[in-house]
Amino acid sequence: MWTHEDCVGAAGHSVDAARWLAMFDRAMARIAGRFKRVEPRATARALVLALLSGVERKNCWRMAEQAGYARPGPMQRLLRSARWDADAVRDDIRSYVLEHLGADDSVLIVDETGFLKKGTASAGVQRQYTGTAGRIENTQVGVFLAYASSKGRALIDRRLYLPDASWCQDAERRARAGVPEQAEFATKPTLAGQMITAALDAGIGASWVTGDEAYGQDPGLRTMLESREVGYVLAVACSTRVRINRGRTAARADAVADRLPASAWHRQSAGAGAKGPRYYDWAWIEIGAGGHRHLLIRRNPSSGELAFYLCWSPGRVPLSELVRVAGIRWCIEECFQAAKGQVGLDHYQVRHWTSWHRHVTLVMLALAFLAALAADATPARVAELNRPARSTDPIDLSVPEIRHLFGALLIPSSTSLYRLLHWSNWRRRHQATARRSHYRLRLAGPSTG
């Protein structure tokens, strides 16, 4: 562990080692009551620390070695047979995210991700399409709900998709994989609706929901959101039929786009990307009556490729708000990337229904903790520097950089904290230089249309 001198040597840096470790202790204390015995409670702490470490493959064997255990048994028992409720811990994570990332501009995002498998015994596995591979593969599919705001983003709920014919109707296979009797077939939009309903009932005050075509095409999900007076910007296929001219005419979405005049298109940014603002051309058309329902169309300025969204809001909103929500949908892809690349979302070697939910839940906790650290380390947090930001300042700490730094804090190291932070600053200064170059190139082009 770092010495007091190391921490003093880091003065002026946005990393406060003692504060980070204290925040971790508070995060683990939040879920401590979910474990009735001290052994699984301690193992859960060790497992989350291992998820946050730099160990390359975050399966039970590697994490047990990282934690100093003689064998993986304790962690395997934690995921399979120890007595604790993963759904209750999920609820704690949801409230933790709201506490650290909550903001008035929050959006709930639904999406799915695949977990490639080789065998047939893992709960829910079958040959099915997954965007992870971009084709049909032998895979498990998890449907997730993310919370995104100006303070950050994190995953707050999960459901394992259970195919109907190959799993729900095969009692013997269900029993071997530990699928509970009450688990019934549900479509992915139905699973998404269950998670959104649970989040809203728990006090998540998001005003918007967004998702891709798999969810936008489902009328039941849209109806549920309207009944809860939650606005949505949901992607749909180009073949979707909408009613224009105050409901008097029905037409395909792509046919509507083809008839729009040049004056209908407005160039706006869908948010900042790694290489600068993400500019697209946008058009919106009222569908139905009342002014609360729109077809939103996005056009790529370079390729001309079109994307379509069905939108509804309890009150009138400007085009810029719909564009903002549509752009936020990519935040869940960033969550998946961080969860898989940093804290081992897809590194598990478990087959059991309970084990899958427990592993994924603890990964969500690790990711939420990193998001909380990132929010805590923003420029607002380091205002004690008492000076305006300079062009040579490094970019804000990212989740991968925080995971790297926090992982180094967990184990004794011959590298001093001063040198570790020196390299952190060096990397982020160079990243800032690259980003400024990308921004200059992007902003040099036309920004209105």
UniProtKB/TrEMBL annotation:
Superkingdom in the source lineage: Bacteria
Domain Transposase IS701-like DDE: 34-245
One Pfam family cited in the UniProt record for this chain: DDE_5
Alphabetical list of PANTHER family matching this protein: TRANSPOSASE
Name of the protein in question: IS701 family transposase
The organism's taxonomic lineage, starting at the top: Bacteria, Bacillati, Actinomycetota, Actinomycetes, Kitasatosporales
